[in-house]
Every structure is written in structure tokens, then in C-alpha cells.
Write a structure and sequence with these properties.
single chain; 302 residues; alpha+beta; D-amino Acid Aminotransferase, Chain A, domain 1; 2 domains; seven-stranded antiparallel beta sheet; six-stranded antiparallel beta sheet; 31% helix
């Protein structure tokens, strides 16, 4: 199906389900702005603060090896980095997966990303300098985070062998509303972000099994690179994931959030928390969120 046919098909479907589908304007005006006070956005816009806040509440997050906020700190960067054979570099205030570099091994005085790209120290130093300069945060000075690389759960690794998968959970007023598994592909360069070519797989909230999958708004049933079946797969640690997301909502003082969860070999942990989660999850699940959100509002007003 051509791009324009997919767009028109999606628009037609959304018009037919206008009373069920949460649009961008309604998301902002009815849920995000009334539920998330501006003064608390720092808890989601600053990944270091997010991790600190969650960790203080006993919620598992990736270990931070170091953070670099000033150019003078680059002088000690090489000696510090050589302590680690694998790590992830990300901007503290970045979004959409931009600026993230995943290093999987170190050999012959060079680092290699999960997709085999080679980095020498100058490459790493320049990337971190770009983060500090604000290349990935709208021109504002930022902090580069160097944290542990997560070794994902074996079952999830089968579904996403080309990079770390994560689960996006939409939570409203403490209730988990929708969830999807985001899977890396060759086209996404090992990243699970949908707009970069990743796969979205919706998860049944009641039983934790996958039920629909899409890539670039096309419905699929198998991974395009590995041909692994993506549907009717049980997500491991499902109940623990739901409980973890509910605990996040008691820790972060906001009521409408997207919570990103990775499942490591040791169990689930929180990657990020997003105050403006996208609405594409409705297309992937073939089901809008309005009814569920309205039910939550009714219960909270009793």
C-alpha cells in the first residue's frame, strides 16, 4: 500500500471511530495539561532527575556510570570510559531516541555498536560534546548520560534480536490504560522507536499477550528481518510490569504518563517516563483510548 493510501485509510478509520480515538488536541487539552502541572515536567524532561526520583522510591532503573555536563569534564573521559566494555550514551533531555548510542563491546582500542559500527575515542568524545552543546535538545545545554547496557530477557531477545525492545505503557490516574512492545529492526538501526522504523506490537492488558503488530502503519504478523512470529506471545513478568508502572505514578507527581519499561535478564526496569506520550498506540492496537479514559474519570469522581 502506498504512503498516501495508508494515510487516507488511517484518516477514514479514525473518522469512523472519532468518538473512540484520542486525537492530539484532545490529548493535550483534556488530559496532559489538566493532569500534568508545568512545574512537574522536570521529572520527565530530565532523565537524570527521573532516574534519581524513581531510584529513591525503590524502582529499578539502569545504573548510571557517569554523567558529563561540562566540556572540561571531557579531559578525564577516555580513562573513565575504558573501564567499560559496553554502555549506552544518551542525552538527558533528548527525545524520540535521538542521540542514543549503544556500545556492545571494546576491542583493539575501539568500541563497537550493537550493529557493528566502529567508534574510536574521538568519535565518542565528539558525540558527547554534541550532546552537551544541545544538538539533541533543541539547542539547549544538556548532560550526556553514560549508563549500563541492558542485557534483555531471553524471550524478548528472540522477538527483538537486533536491539533492545521496550514496553510503552500509558497510565492515567494510576490505572494502566494501554501497552505496546516496541521492537528494533535493521531499518531502525537497532532502535525500537516507531518513527525510525521500529515495530509496534500491542499487548492485551488483561493477559499480557501480544495481539496486533504494525510497521509503518502496515499490519504484520512476523518480524520482517527474522521472520519470528510476533502475535499471541506471552510477555514475561507481565503482572510485575503493571505493578511497576503503577508505582511510578505514585512517585512522579503527574497523572498522565507514558512509561517505558525494559525487561532485562533480571526482570523489568524503568527506562524513561514521558509526559507527552504519542497516540500511535491506538492505531497499533486497533482500538481507541477515549472510553477507558472516560471510565477512569468517572470512577475518580465518585
Amino acid at each position: 500500500m502506498s504512503y498516501f493510501k495508508k494515510v487516507f485509510s488511517s484518516l477514514r478509520e479514525n473518522m469512523q471511530n472519532a468518538d473512540k480515538v484520542l486525537g492530539m488536541n484532545r490529548r493535550n487539552l483534556s488530559y496532559i495539561y489538566p493532569s500534568n502541572q508545568r512545574k512537574y515536567f522536570q521529572y520527565t524532561n530530565n532523565k537524570l532527575l527521573t532516574k534519581k526520583t524513581l531510584k529513591e522510591s525503590g524502582i529499578t532503573v539502569p545504573e548510571t556510570f557517569m554523567s558529563v555536563s561540562y566540556f572540561y569534564e571531557l579531559q578525564k573521559l577516555e580513562s573513565n570510559l575504558r573501564k567499560y566494555s559496553s554502555f549506552v550514551i544518551k542525552p538527558s533531555s533528548g527525545s524520540g531516541g535521538n542521540g542514543i548510542v549503544v556500545i556492545s563491546e571494546y576491542k583493539n582500542k575501539k568500541w563497537f555498536s550493537i550493529n557493528g559500527k566502529e567508534y574510536n575515542f574521538d568519535d565518542i568524545q565528539k558525540h558527547i560534546a554534541d550532546i552537551i552543546f544541545g544538538v539533541y535538545s533543541f539547542g539547549l545545554n544538556d548532560t550526556a548520560i553514560v549508563e549500563e547496557r541492558i542485557i534483555q530477557n531471553e524471550q524478548i531477545d528472540i522477538l527483538s534480536p537486533l536491539g533492545l525492545a521496550d514496553i510503552r505503557v500509558i497510565n492515567y490516574k494510576g490505572s494502566n490504560v494501554k501497552a505496546m512492545l516496541r521492537i528494533a529492526t535493521k531499518n531502525s538501526n537497532g532502535r525500537a522507536n516507531l518513527h525510525q522504523g521500529g515495530i509496534g506490537v500491542s499487548i492485551n492488558m488483561n493477559n499480557g499477550k501480544t495481539d496486533f503488530a504494525q510497521i509503518d502503519r502496515d499490519d504484520i504478523s512476523h518480524h520482517p528481518d527474522s521472520n519470528i512470529e510476533l502475535l499471541n506471545v506471552q510477555i514475561p513478568h507481565w503482572e510485575e510490569i503493571l505493578t511497576l508502572c503503577e508505582k511510578c505514578m505514585t512517585t512522579i507527581p503527574m497523572e498522565y504518563l507514558g512509561i517505558d519499561v525494559a525487561i532485562s535478564k533480571n526482570g523489568p526496569l524503568i527506562l524513561e517516563v514521558n509526559a507527552r506520550p504519542g497516540i500511535e498506540i491506538q492505531n497499533i492496537s486497533h482500538n481507541g483510548m477515549i472510553e477507558t479514559l472516560s471510565d477512569i474519570d468517572k470512577k475518580s469522581s465518585l
